[in-house]
């Protein structure tokens, strides 16, 4: 194999620790032994790496890695070429402070360091370590969604290195088909090396923290959430988590509030009032005012650090926060996490954010077809051992299918799957819905030979 000459770094198994470090992913199950890892120093390096992969016989599989947090193996390759975009992480606020340019290998923490310093905000992820590239090409549901929509609804323009090596700018006016496809079509149209997002006025301080209730209170908590949700504002959201915390490992329901513009703590006090009545009282509570999204995005660091690293996530979408459905999920989660110590770290998360802004965009306006009111839910199968992985994986799949079916029965609408939390075995029509035919035509236009073939694969369709 002729060597690849670039300005950046090329790592092979012979590179030792640096190679091993470059293979690391958020989930231990997402790691694969790449043939080579390319860490580009420029957009031309990205093009050169793609040309190199294409020139091999047979061509090398290409995987693109930004934050490395996707829980399938989409950002890894067994024997192929991994484009590790980590060095491309520059973030620059425009002089007029209306937009921010972020390179495609940045994590949201890189962005939040700048926005916190400059006292502005951007519609990014709830967690600092999630990559801007993967999060955004899959839609991007985050803490500012209630007020400003998805990450893709805030994207103004992007720079993409196409499969044939061309480096193109794309926006609503320039190469608009490509701009449409990368907003929700996933990473299968090119390597997005730069994204320019709309900047919003500072949305803090933020009321954030944890309220934990014992599992015995689940029905009361779920009904209180439903009551809160029916009058929630776009400035407040709750993440609801089912987990078994140490040292007792008993079922627990935890609320993680995120309240924007919480200047004197009054807004968060109002949001949390239904959960602090005489009849319902948290056994543990730590809610505080945090100054910026950078701080808030580190809030889950300690609990995530102690969670088992063998992780499979599947996301589902529900039309409403329906107590009957949520309680059925609770029972299934309790039963599964009782089966063995290996898998008791498995968890379920519901995200309840005001969907108004999300639905202000049409289903065909971006590649992401989910524009009716909806809420996402993450099913996290975790195992402490290799032996527990098959059970955690099967449970994750079964529960996702149960939720989808139950939601369809209750609402009369099948919402399919959420690309950012897919595993790759989903049918593309269930992910991209009515937008699939256009995506297939654009795949033929931008990547006819399927250089980018990781994910829920879109087959090219020649016109
Ligand atoms: C703990 C946890 C919490 C999460 N919470 C949320 C949430 O609140 N909201 C939400 O929307 N999602 C959430 N996700 C899902 C997450 O957004 C996706 O897994 C996303 O793909 C991660 O992006 P990444 O860059 O870190 O991924 P990577 O693993 O690096 O890549 C994932 C995929 O994106 C593609 N990709 C990455 N960067 C680029 C690029 N620059 N150009 C082209 N393609 C690219 C890759 O090819 C790959 O297919 C969560 C995931 C985890 C693990």
Secondary structure layout:
Elements: E1 9-11, H1 17-23, E2 36-39, H2 43-55, E3 62-65, E4 81-84, E5 91-93, E6 99-103, H3 108-118, E7 120-121, H4 132-137, H5 145-148, E8 155-161, E9 167-171, H6 176-182, E10 191-198, E11 200-201, E12 206-214, H7 218-229, E13 236-243, E14 252-259, H8 266-272, E15 284-290, H9 293-296, H10 301-305, E16 310-318, H11 323-337, E17 347-353, E18 375-383, H12 389-411, H13 428-432, H14 436-446
Parallel strand pairs: 2-4, 3-4
Antiparallel strand pairs: 1-2, 5-6, 6-10, 7-11, 8-9, 8-10, 12-14, 12-15, 13-14, 13-17, 16-18, 17-18
Helix pairs in contact: 7-11, 11-12
The structure holds flavin-adenine dinucleotide.
Keywords: FAD, Flavoprotein, Oxidoreductase
Protein name: FAD-binding domain-containing protein
Domain FAD-binding PCMH-type: 29-202
Name the descriptors.
single chain; 463 residues; alpha+beta; Uridine Diphospho-n-acetylenolpyruvylglucosamine Reductase, domain 2; Uridine Diphospho-n-acetylenolpyruvylglucosamine Reductase, domain 3; Vanillyl-alcohol Oxidase, Chain A, domain 3; 3 domains; 7-stranded antiparallel sheet; 5-stranded antiparallel sheet; 14 helices; 18 strands; globular; binds flavin-adenine dinucleotide
What's a concise summary of this model?
By secondary structure, this protein is an alpha+beta fold. It contains 14 helices and 18 strands. The chain binds flavin-adenine dinucleotide.
CATH topology assignment of the largest domain:
Vanillyl-alcohol Oxidase, Chain A, domain 3
Could you estimate the helical fraction of the residues in percent? 25-40%
The class by helix and strand makeup works out as alpha+beta
Largest sheet: 7 strands, antiparallel
Q: List the ions, cofactors and other small molecules found in this model.
A: flavin-adenine dinucleotide
**Neighbour order of strands in the largest sheet:** 15-12-14-13-17-18-16
């Amino acid at each position: 194999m002729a060597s690849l000459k670039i300005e950046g770094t090329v790592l092979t198994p012979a590179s030792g620790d640096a190679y091993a470090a470059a293979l690391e992913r958020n989930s231990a199950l997402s790691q694969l032994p790449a043939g080579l890892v390319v860490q580009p120093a420029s957009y031309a390096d990205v093009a050169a790496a793609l040309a190199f992969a294409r020139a091999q016989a047979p061509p090398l599989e290409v995987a693109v890695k930004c934050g490395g947090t996707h829980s399938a193996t989409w950002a890894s390759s067994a024997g192929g070429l991994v484009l590790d975009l980590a060095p491309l992480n520059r973030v620059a606020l425009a002089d007029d402070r209306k937009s921010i340019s972020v390179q495609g290998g940045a994590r949201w923490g890189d962005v939040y360091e700048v926005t916190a310093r400059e006292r502005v905000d951007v519609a990014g992820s709830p967690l600092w370590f999630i990559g801007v590239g993967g999060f955004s090409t899959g839609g991007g549901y985050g803490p500012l969604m209630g007020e400003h929509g998805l990450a893709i609804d805030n994207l103004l323009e992007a720079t993409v290195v196409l499969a044939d090596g061309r480096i193109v700018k794309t926006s609503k006016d320039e190469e608009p088909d490509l701009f449409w496809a990368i907003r929700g079509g996933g990473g299968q149209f090119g390597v997005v090396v730069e994204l320019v997002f709309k900047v919003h006025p500072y949305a803090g301080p933020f009321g954030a923290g944890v309220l934990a209730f014992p599992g015995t209170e689940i029905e009361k908590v779920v009904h209180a959430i439903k009551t809160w949700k029916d009058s929630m504002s776009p400035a407040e959201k709750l993440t609801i988590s089912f987990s078994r915390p140490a040292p007792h490992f008993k079922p627990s329901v935890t609320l993680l509030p995120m309240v924007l513009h919480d200047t004197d703590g009054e807004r968060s006090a109002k949001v949390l009032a239904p959960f602090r009545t005489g009849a319902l009282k948290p056994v543990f509570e730590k809610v505080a005012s945090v100054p910026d999204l950078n701080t808030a995005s580190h809030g889950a660091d300690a609990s995530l650090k102690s969670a088992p690293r063998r992780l499979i996530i599947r996301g589902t979408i529900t039309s409403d926060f329906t107590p009957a459905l949520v309680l059925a999920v609770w029972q299934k989660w309790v039963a599964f996490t009782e089966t063995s110590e290996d898998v008791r770290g498995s968890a379920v998360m519901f995200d309840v954010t005001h969907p108004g802004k999300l639905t202000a965009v049409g289903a065909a306006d971006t590649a992401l077809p989910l524009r009716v009111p909806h809420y996402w839910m993450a099913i996290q199968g975790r195992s402490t051992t290799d032996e527990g992985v098959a059970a955690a994986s099967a449970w994750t799949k079964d529960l996702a299918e149960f939720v989808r079916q139950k939601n369809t029965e209750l609402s009369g609408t099948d919402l399919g799957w959420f690309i950012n939390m897919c595993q790759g075995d989903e049918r593309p029509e269930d992910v991209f819905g009515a937008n699939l035919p256009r995506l297939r035509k654009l795949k033929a236009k931008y990547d006819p030979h399927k250089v980018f073939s990781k994910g829920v694969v879109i087959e090219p369709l020649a016109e």
